Amino acid sequence: MRLLRSTDLALRVLMRLAVAHGSSPTTREVAAGMDVPYTHAAKVVAELQHMGLLEARRGRGGGLALTEAGRTASVGAIVRAFEGEGDVVDCEGATPCPLHTGCRLRGALRRAQEAFFATLDPVTVEDVVAAPTGPLLLDISRMP
């Protein structure tokens, strides 16, 4: 299973903000620091704000800050929110699979996907930035 770029970016933004310690980078700074288009970062930041995981303040002294909910958020819940609840494969798409009514693979893939999410459910954003990750994150992605 491969995560969407937006899911990856959402997790990296949350991790970076978790180690910000008083700095409040702007969305533009986050985009530049992670080498992604500003529009892509802005969409992800807006979704994270809507989820209550970060605050975005405008104007002088503004920027992004992780909320307490963001700090303790389940990585599994974040991945689910960004990836959606869809199946790993699209058995009933534009050209439905002729096996879709009696296929055992679809159920096995669904169970594997749920096991993937279940493994991430107890892991929080705070957990993934614990040492040695947090200090390394600060070293490799310095933001003003």
What does this structure look like?
This protein is mainly alpha-helical and 144 residues long. The chain has eight helices and two strands. A hairpin with a 5-residue loop joins strand 1 (54-57) and strand 2. The longest helix is centred in the last third of the chain and has 16 residues, at 105-120. The chain starts with a helix and ends with a helix. 21% of the residues are buried. The mean pLDDT is 88.
Q: Topology of this structure?
A:
Blueprint lengths: L4 H14 L8 H7 L4 H13 L3 E4 L5 E4 L1 H4 L3 H9 L21 H16 L4 H4 L4 H8 L4
Antiparallel strand pairs: 1-2
Helix pairs in contact: 1-3, 1-5, 2-3, 5-6
Question: What tags apply to this protein structure?
Answer:
144 residues, mainly alpha, two-stranded antiparallel ribbon, 8 helices, elongated
Short description:
The chain is mainly alpha-helical and 144 residues long. The chain is built from 8 helices and 2 strands; from the N terminus they run H-H-H-E-E-H-H-H-H-H.
Report the β-strand fraction as a percent range: 5-15%
| SSE-based structural type | mainly alpha
Q: Give the overall form.
A: elongated
The Rg value, from CA coordinates, equals 18 Å
Total E-strand runs: 2
- Count, helices: 8
Low-confidence stretches at least 5 residues in length (pLDDT < 50)?
none
Order of helices and strands: HHHEEHHHHH
Query: Largest sheet, described in full?
Result: 2 strands, antiparallel
Indicate the mean pLDDT. Answer: 88
Helix content: 40-55%
